[in-house]
Each structure stands twice: as structure tokens, then as C-alpha cells.
Amino acid sequence: MTSRVSLPGLHTPGAGFDQPFEMLDACHDRVRRSLDLLQRLRAYLQDKGCDDSARQAARDVLRYFDIAAPLHHEDEELHVFPALLASHAEGHVADLVHQMQRDHVRMAACWAEARQPLEQLAQGALQSFTPEHEAALERFAGCYADHLRHEDDSLYPAARAVLDAQAQQSMGREMAARRGAVR
């Protein structure tokens, strides 16, 4: 039986912790949806201004990138990247892993800057984004394009090939435990 849990950012049916790579893929789908929501929020504010819907959208983006995204990055840092580096210590895969690790650091820094205007908007302390806010939001969103593509197209398939069923079960159990999910 597949373990299911309802946590912020974990609402995709069909992906349980007993299928860790499907969970990681589902997280990427949620990243894309959250970035799309952020883009729609920015357009909405310019078109209609700030209202309860805009504040709720800001809260939704904040919740995903404050809670689920860091857990996802930690999943990769603890399970995917070490397995790939152990089996591909040199070459293209290792170079990509090191790039993804640098991306995670950059994403965290960009999020720290981008979340401030979103939080102010969500709390009603801000009615629109300044050009500086827009630039910070754009930098943050821009961090993800190549990152997701490299993980989806190269790193996840390579990691699936090197992590056997037992290692994937262990990975899923650890992912569930770190989220406080009962398995």
C-alpha cells in the first residue's frame, strides 16, 4: 500500500514515499505550479491590484517555498547527489551534481530576498511590487529553469539506475520520517 500524507506542498495523488523518485518528480511539478502562480500573481497585481485573492496566492507561494522546497532540496542533497557522486566521481554527471548543489545555495539566497515582498503582500503591508521586488522575484524564478531540466533529464534517471530497490525504500522511509509522516 502506498503511503500518502497531506502536508503543505504534498498534494499530488499517486506519489507516495514508497516511490521516492515519483515523489521527487511530483515536487518538480509543484515547483512549476508554484512558479506559475507567482507569475500569475505578479500579472494580477498589475491588472487588478491587491485583494484577498492576491494575498492568498502570496501565502500559497510562501508556504510552498518555505516548507516543501527546502525539504525537496534536502532529499536531493541526502540521497540523489551522494549516490551519483559515489558512482560517477568524475565526468558530466559529477559536474551536473556540483552545479545543482551550487544552484541550491543560490536558490536559497534568491528566495530569502524574494520572500520579503511576498510576505509583506500576504500580511497586507504591501499593495504592489516595486521594480526592485519584481527584479528579486524574477531572479528567484529564473533559478529554476535549467535546474529542473538537468535533474529531470539527466540526474534523476542516472540516480534511478544506481539506487537499487532497497536503497530507494530506505530513501523513501527517511524522506517520510524527516517530514513527520507515518509510514
Percentage of residues in DSSP E strands: under 5%
In round numbers, the mean pLDDT is 91
Q: Total number of helical segments?
A: 6
Span between termini: 10 Å
Shape-level CATH architecture: Up-down Bundle
Kindly describe this structure.
This protein is an all-alpha fold and about 180 residues long. It has a single domain, classed as nmb1532 protein domain like (Four Helix Bundle (Hemerythrin (Met), subunit A)). The chain is built from six helices and no strands. Helix 1 (about 20-50) runs antiparallel to helix 2, helix 2 (about 50-85) runs antiparallel to helix 3 and helix 2 packs across helix 5 (about 145-160). The longest helix has about 35 residues, at about 50-85. The radius of gyration is 18 Å and the shape is elongated. The termini are close together. Mean pLDDT is about 90; it is low at about 1-15.
List the helices and strands and how they pair.
Layout: H1 20-48, H2 52-87, H3 92-122, H4 131-142, H5 144-162, H6 165-178
Helix pairs in contact: 1-2, 2-3, 2-5, 3-4, 3-5
Q: What's the quick description here?
A:
The protein is an all-alpha fold. It has helices at residues 20-48, 52-87, 92-122, 131-142, 144-162, 165-178.
Which labels suit this protein?
183 residues, elongated, 6 helices, mainly alpha, disordered N terminus, Four Helix Bundle (Hemerythrin (Met), subunit A)
